[in-house]
Specification:
The chain is α/β, with parallel strands linked by helices. Among the domains are: 56 residues, Dodecin subunit-like; 61 residues, no CATH class; 72 residues, no CATH class; 102 residues, no CATH class; 64 residues. It is 23% helix and 31% strand. The protein is built from nine helices and 43 strands. The strands form eight sheets. It has a 23-stranded mixed β-sheet that branches. A four-stranded antiparallel β-sheet has the order 10-14-18-17, with no helix packed on it. α7 packs antiparallel against α8. 27% of the residues are buried.
Length: 647
């Protein structure tokens, strides 16, 4: 079976082989003489020559009517296995149209000093083929003498794209085509005009045209393809662009490409679930140490031009430019790359690139600024309004207050006018939290929580201490946890508000432990359910001795899920064990102190020892002895808050 692609490939190969053959038109008194002449011209032995008889010779009678043999000879094709192109009876060969550009075949005539040549080309893409009458019409237009009709017919039949001599012509050099050249447009173009040859005159040859152009000063930008097309198919008395100069091109100036948004007025909004979040304005341009902030694209060299007469047209190289750097930015040795030396905000000030470690909001964090995300320290001169986030890899300092917002910093968080989160905000600091007050908020600190006016109805966790210092430094309601110490002026309230205070352990680890235990319980529940389903399938197999394909697939899925859940359960159990061992080894004993009053309703936990305060205490500290909470004389906190603030 043979497809259309294979048939096309075969035909193309045959056509290519024919094109590569050399044809000679020779004659002789006998066929043998003609073949010997062909062997000489082709430089091949007789056994490697194929031929076609164009005109059969005759001996005549006593020399009268004698006519020589005329043959068309060419090299024989190399012997090879014939390729089968048989189509099976059930194969349809559909031709939906030309596979490429459609083009008719052409008949072209050249007049040369050695005779008149004819070339016929194959059509492409379903185009029209040249007929013998077409070829004769073209031949008669260009030549009014006699020609070899048999050779013309053979050339048309083969249509191999090769020029073949079909007529003799008495060459008259004085009637050859005449050439003139006009150099125009400030020597940037050369136009060739040729007049047709007269009787016995020849068409111009390629080498003759090139020599003519150079003799007339045309030496650059010569269009060889256009000249080759003219030689093959001359168009007389029509100007032909045969040379074109090259215009000079100035080199492009060097330019600086900034790897950040330099126009602060351009606001980019993020879209989430079809809605635009006006809080995420992306005003802050964050970079990290080592990040490329600008690149220089070098100036380009000039490309001089040239006229068709060879005159050089000068051009200018591009102008250089330098990356201007300021603070915390480093320039590479070749001056092509600028990188940030620290984490921070990249800005352009006075034409120089700077990386600022502090981002200042001159006012409130609001719709005007959007949420703040900064790889450094953030200073807010106003308030953080409800619903907005501020995140920083350094510190966050708010001169005003914080509403029901989220603050997250790797360093300290300082809030000068207090945190009033309305039970929706969350504040997390990698080190310390400093605030005038904390009310209805969740606050988590990696070290200290220090408050001057008290903590009310909040969830506060500190890895070391919670300290309330000031005239109204009380802790009322909520739950406060610290690893080492909780110290305030008063604990609880006259109304008996429940206030939970816990010390003597790592609160973060304990919270993680509680979460892991809940996770393990969920895994155990899922494993039990999986095992019940597996037991059901196993019972079915015992009863029927064979399960359906769907049941077998279900059994495999259940087994895989069981393996995954078992692995997760083991991982959680291992982490639980590690945390339990860590908590049991903690040396922190913990202390809860009040310099003024402890009111009933306060629940104290020192390590694992609990105490529910039922009577009012004055100036006391709670510590643990022998797994029992002991009430002792008030002990002042030994924490150096000034040093902690400086750190």
């Amino acid at each position: 079976m043979v497809g259309m692609d294979r048939l096309k490939e075969y035909m193309q190969r045959q056509y290519s082989e024919d094109q590569q053959r050399s044809f000679v038109h020779v004659g002789g008194d006998t066929l043998e003489d003609a073949l010997n002449a062909a062997a000489i011209e082709l430089s091949l032995p007789l056994k490697r020559i194929e031929y076609e008889i164009l005109e059969k010779g005759t001996k005549g009678v006593l020399g009268v009517g004698k006519r020589p043999y005329s043959i068309l000879a060419y090299p024989a094709a190399p012997e090879q296995e014939p390729e089968s192109l048989e189509l099976s009876g059930d194969e349809d060969l559909e031709l939906d149209g030309p596979a490429g550009k459609q083009r008719d075949g052409e008949a072209l005539v050249r007049r040369t000093p050695h005779g008149v040549l004819l070339k016929v080309t194959q059509p492409e893409g379903g185009g029209r083929a040249v007929t013998e009458s077409d070829a004769l019409e073209v031949l008669q237009r260009r030549f009014d003498g006699s020609y070899d009709a048999a050779t013309v017919a053979k050339v048309v039949k083969r249509a191999d794209g090769e020029f073949v001599k079909v007529a003799e012509m008495q060459h008259d050099p004085s009637n050859d085509a005449m050439l003139t050249v006009n150099i125009v447009e400030l020597d940037m173009k050369a136009l060739l005009v040729a007049t047709p040859p007269g009787t016995g005159g020849a068409d111009p040859e390629y080498e003759a045209i090139i020599g003519f152009l150079k003799a007339n000063g045309v030496v650059e930008g010569i269009k060889t393809e256009a000249i080759e097309r003219f030689v093959e198919k001359p168009e007389y008395n029509e100007p032909l662009l045969v040379a074109e100069g090259r215009k000079p091109r100035n080199g492009a100036d060097a330019r600086i490409v900034y790897e950040f948004e330099t126009d602060s007025t351009r606001i980019k909004l993020k879209e989430s679930e079809g809605r635009v979040d006006f809080k995420d304005l992306n005003i802050v341009q964050n970079v990290v140490a080592g990040q490329v902030v600008a690149r220089k694209i070098p100036a380009e060299p000039a490309e001089p031009g040239v006229t068709v007469t060879g005159k050089v047209l000068p051009a200018e190289d591009g102008k250089d430019a330098a990356i201007q750097i300021g603070k915390n930015v480093k320039l590479s040795e070749d001056g092509r790359t600028a990188t940030a030396e620290i984490n921070g905000q990249v800005v352009i000030a006075a034409g120089k690139i700077n990386v600022e470690p502090v981002y200042v909001v001159n006012g409130n964090v609001s719709l005007k600024t959007g949420n703040i995300l900064f790889l450094g320290t953030v200073v807010v001169k106003g308030h953080v309004e409800d619903g907005f986030d501020v995140k920083a890899s350094g510190n966050i300092e708010v001169m005003g207050g914080v509403g029901k917002s989220n603050l997250d910093a790797e360093g300290d968080i300082i809030v000068h006018q207090g945190i009033g989160a309305k039970n929706e905000g969350k504040v997390r600091a990698g080190r310390n939290v400093w605030s005038k007050f904390i009310e209805n908020a969740e606050v988590i600190s990696g070290d200290l929580v220090v408050v001057s006016d008290g903590i009310m109805n909040s969830h506060v966790v500190a890895q070391r201490k919670v300290i309330c210092k000031g005239k109204r430094a009380s802790i009322v309601g909520g739950a406060v946890r610290a690893a080492e110490e909780i110290n305030a002026k008063s604990l609880g309230a006259v109304a008996g508000t429940e206030t939970i205070l816990e010390v003597g352990y790592d609160p973060t680890s304990k919270e993680r432990l509680a979460a892991l235990e809940q996770e393990r319980a969920e895994y155990q529940k899922k494993l039990e359910e999986l095992q019940r389903n597996l037991n059901t399938l196993e019972n079915m197999r015992r009863q029927r001795k064979k399960l359906t394909k769907e049941k077998i697939e279900s059994y495999k899925r259940l087994m895989k899920s069981k393996e995954q859940l078992t692995a997760e359960t083991r991982r959680v159990a291992k982490e639980i064990q590690e945390i339990q061992e860590y908590l049991s080894e903690l040396s922190t004993s913990g202390r809860i102190s009040a310099s003024a009053t402890v009111f009933p309703g306060v629940k104290v936990y020192v390590k694992d020892a609990p105490l529910a305060v039922k009577n009012e205490f004055k100036a006391v500290s709670f510590v643990a002895e022998n797994d029992v909470v002991k009430v002792t004389k008030y002990q002042e906190s030994d924490e150096d808050l000034a040093s902690a603030r400086k750190a």
